[in-house]
């Protein structure tokens, strides 16, 4: 705990305080930061939502959420009660004007005017601008206020621009924190350490030595209760346009001058701007989209997407894209990006396949080295090397895996990705948040793919629940002699 520094006193106002995100992620994350000694005694967490609740009723809901979502080994009843003492609640329809805002204003007025205020929008994105307008109208924006925007920032370039313009009317860019929880994952941040703190890796990190890159985030669950929302989004909007493109940027970017926010974000932006456009004419060759049908996962029969949705749909639950970063470092190196619901496994990982050794001394070409960064589960780094087979007298090769888990000191639980991000907003450190020009660059690249799919330029494929995806995605890699990681053992 001595490694964790307490932040300044703050008021954390969460709009959408009764929603699933707040109960499942935000409150447990803030509890864990209190447990680590980072939250001062006079900090306040203020929930704001339309539900007609008094403080006691909201605290009871929060206690129930902590009991349900916190692991048993970090749940401490005494600490929970201490944490709940920080919580306040106001009934507020944040999209409307009216006397309800006076309750929030009165609550905030009781604190030091120089106190840090963080407004977290755990609401529908179309409400962001109106909430900001109300914060301005009721005099709740101070020089030390920050606003945290949850994804998605729009469903296309036009809606993203409208959201950014609406929020930007009342908050300058340096007070806007667009959260991407993937950037809060320790293994994702470790891409920077692995690349730039290790001369061995840094020297090999280019097209000269790397054959291909795979970025995968797949899960065994379906859309369940989120079917109505998911059908308006789909796999590309939900995962690739934001989370996985950010991971690609960390893998592909040039070394920033420092770890200062703008240095890192400038380096990421350069990658987004260097992505080769995928047009209506190339989408069929570079992308695959699919929906899952009925299948078996963990021995249980599960329905197909259309059965869960209860209607026909052209929304993809699987997306695979072959991307190209047109810089000298990555000339002719394919980046394969993949996400799926109802996959045969749950995993998020980055796989770097190195070019095979150009030598004939072993008779056959040695297998390619592979570096695997496991983001989840079982966070760690695996490096596949060629070694001599000790069971044979002749000099034959076999592969060996150097597998190193990433663990916290003292056996402490791995922090949830929201934990650091929530307090980074208090600290005023935006390095792991997304700048507006990054959002726009990502949409410029992704929107033509969505348009091509909408116009039927790329056929909708199917894959059985519990499988690894459609055959067309296997062919996408086979065209360059590559294989998905799970089939390349």
UniProtKB/TrEMBL annotation:
<comment type="function">
    <text>Catalyzes the oxidation of glucose 6-phosphate to 6-phosphogluconolactone.</text>
</comment>
<dbReference type="Pfam" id="PF00479">
    <property type="entry name" value="G6PD_N"/>
</dbReference>
<dbReference type="InterPro" id="IPR019796">
    <property type="entry name" value="G6P_DH_AS"/>
</dbReference>
<keyword id="KW-0313">Glucose metabolism</keyword>
<keyword id="KW-0521">NADP</keyword>
<feature type="binding site">
    <location>
        <position position="181"/>
    </location>
    <ligand>
        <name>substrate</name>
    </ligand>
</feature>
<dbReference type="GO" id="GO:0006006">
    <property type="term" value="P:glucose metabolic process"/>
</dbReference>
<protein>
    <recommendedName>
        <fullName>Glucose-6-phosphate 1-dehydrogenase</fullName>
        <ecNumber>1.1.1.49</ecNumber>
    </recommendedName>
</protein>
<feature type="domain" description="Glucose-6-phosphate dehydrogenase NAD-binding">
    <location>
        <begin position="13"/>
        <end position="190"/>
    </location>
</feature>
<comment type="pathway">
    <text>Carbohydrate degradation; pentose phosphate pathway; D-ribulose 5-phosphate from D-glucose 6-phosphate (oxidative stage): step 1/3.</text>
</comment>
<feature type="binding site">
    <location>
        <position position="238"/>
    </location>
    <ligand>
        <name>substrate</name>
    </ligand>
</feature>
<dbReference type="GO" id="GO:0005829">
    <property type="term" value="C:cytosol"/>
</dbReference>
<feature type="binding site">
    <location>
        <position position="50"/>
    </location>
    <ligand>
        <name>NADP(+)</name>
    </ligand>
</feature>
<keyword id="KW-0119">Carbohydrate metabolism</keyword>
<dbReference type="InterPro" id="IPR022675">
    <property type="entry name" value="G6P_DH_C"/>
</dbReference>
<dbReference type="GO" id="GO:0009051">
    <property type="term" value="P:pentose-phosphate shunt, oxidative branch"/>
</dbReference>
<feature type="domain" description="Glucose-6-phosphate dehydrogenase C-terminal">
    <location>
        <begin position="192"/>
        <end position="485"/>
    </location>
</feature>
<dbReference type="Pfam" id="PF02781">
    <property type="entry name" value="G6PD_C"/>
</dbReference>
<feature type="binding site">
    <location>
        <position position="346"/>
    </location>
    <ligand>
        <name>substrate</name>
    </ligand>
</feature>
<dbReference type="GO" id="GO:0050661">
    <property type="term" value="F:NADP binding"/>
</dbReference>
<feature type="binding site">
    <location>
        <position position="219"/>
    </location>
    <ligand>
        <name>substrate</name>
    </ligand>
</feature>
<feature type="binding site">
    <location>
        <position position="341"/>
    </location>
    <ligand>
        <name>substrate</name>
    </ligand>
</feature>
<dbReference type="InterPro" id="IPR036291">
    <property type="entry name" value="NAD(P)-bd_dom_sf"/>
</dbReference>
<feature type="active site" description="Proton acceptor">
    <location>
        <position position="243"/>
    </location>
</feature>
<feature type="binding site">
    <location>
        <position position="151"/>
    </location>
    <ligand>
        <name>NADP(+)</name>
    </ligand>
</feature>
<comment type="similarity">
    <text>Belongs to the glucose-6-phosphate dehydrogenase family.</text>
</comment>
<feature type="binding site">
    <location>
        <position position="185"/>
    </location>
    <ligand>
        <name>substrate</name>
    </ligand>
</feature>
<dbReference type="InterPro" id="IPR001282">
    <property type="entry name" value="G6P_DH"/>
</dbReference>
<keyword id="KW-0560">Oxidoreductase</keyword>
<dbReference type="InterPro" id="IPR022674">
    <property type="entry name" value="G6P_DH_NAD-bd"/>
</dbReference>
<dbReference type="GO" id="GO:0004345">
    <property type="term" value="F:glucose-6-phosphate dehydrogenase activity"/>
</dbReference>
